[in-house]
Amino acid sequence: MFVHILPELSEAQVTLQSSLNIRLDFLEHYVYLVALLGLAVFYGLERFANKSRQCSQKSVVADTSVV
């Protein structure tokens, strides 16, 4: 899925560099790094939510079996 947005990121990279009127080497991959960071944060939050949901379901099952 991430690979499908790479052409759009390339266009955004060109737009960003032209709008800033600055030629810095670290900006060459800035858009890709931000996108990768966003993907990593999303993945981490999704894993956290799934683990939290599993713990909640286990506690609900444990609470109902005690009664």
Q: How does this model look, in words?
A:
It is a single chain. With 67 residues, the protein is mainly α. The protein has helices at residues 6-20, 30-66. The longest helix has 37 residues, at 30-66. The radius of gyration is 21 Å and the shape is rod-shaped. The model has no long low-confidence stretch (mean pLDDT 77).
How much β-strand is present in the residues? under 5%
- Please count the helical segments: 2
Compute the separation of the termini in Å: 46 Å
What structural class should be given to the helix and strand makeup?
Answer: mainly alpha
Characteristics:
single chain; mainly alpha; 67 residues; rod-shaped
Element layout with pairings:
Blueprint: H1 6-20, H2 30-66
In short:
With 67 residues, this protein is mainly α.
